[in-house]
């Protein structure tokens, strides 16, 4: 009976939610709604976001940069001068402040790649010790 | 190591209208040169290999999709005129249009 006692009844959650289990993560994202799946890449100078948006072009998607987050949303066609609500929107928190002027985004074959370079830190001065 | 290539069945939408059929296939990351479409008898066969690459020098911190290669086949309806099949792949979305055979179209009969 020891074997049974040692089993962590919630252990499967770690497996399901763990980073290595990418397939399940993708399933969760897709099952959650109509949000486009995203891959996120990081280095010391920038963050890259890749989103799967088959059939979409620049005119179909809106991109809003907040100080430390990015909002990607569907841009609904305005009908009769009225602006419809977006069918989906995804807000992704960023690990650092980004330089909005150097940000760029490009569609290639239904994949949107957003590149957000890290902002130079303002007001930080290195002081030489005498 | 397993060298077998992994294929995923893509998301599709099949719509019938009075004149014909339209099949839409989501192929994100697939360009025209990466996809092959064949008709074998009345079966439509699609194979597409992704050229999508993760950016070099970055570490991946979230993964909700993978570089997928896609494969699918679909039996075309009896009424489809295979000779009229036209396909275009734009922005990662494949659209296949097929007309119905003329003899299956509704015909207006003049009343004398």
The stretches of 5 or more residues of chain B where confidence is low (pLDDT under 50) are none
- Which fold name is given in CATH as the topology of chain B? Immunoglobulin-like
Query: What's the arrangement of strands in the largest beta sheet of chain B?
Result: 1-7-5-4
Largest interface: A-B, 26 and 24 residues
Compute the gyration radius of chain B: what is it? 19 Å
CATH topology of the domain at 36-117 in chain A: Immunoglobulin-like
The first-level CATH class of the domain at 36-117 in chain A is given as: Mainly Beta
Give the total of beta strands of chain A.
7
Strand content of chain A: 25-35%
Based on Cα principal axes, name the global outline of chain B: elongated
Structure description:
The complex is a heterodimer of chains A (130) and B (112). Chain A has 130 residues and is an alpha+beta fold. Chain A has a domain at 36-117: Immunoglobulin-like. Chain A is built from 3 helices and 7 strands, in the order αααβββββββ. The longest helix of chain A is centred in the first third of the chain and has 10 residues, at 22-31. The termini of chain A are far apart. Chain B contains no helices and 9 strands. Chain B is mainly beta. Chain B has a single domain (7-104), classed as Immunoglobulin-like (Sandwich). In chain B, the strands form 2 sheets. Chain B has a 4-stranded mixed sheet, with no helix packed on it. A 4-stranded antiparallel sheet of chain B has the order 2-3-9-8, with no helix packed on it. At the A-B interface, helix 3 and strand 1 of A face strand 6 of B.
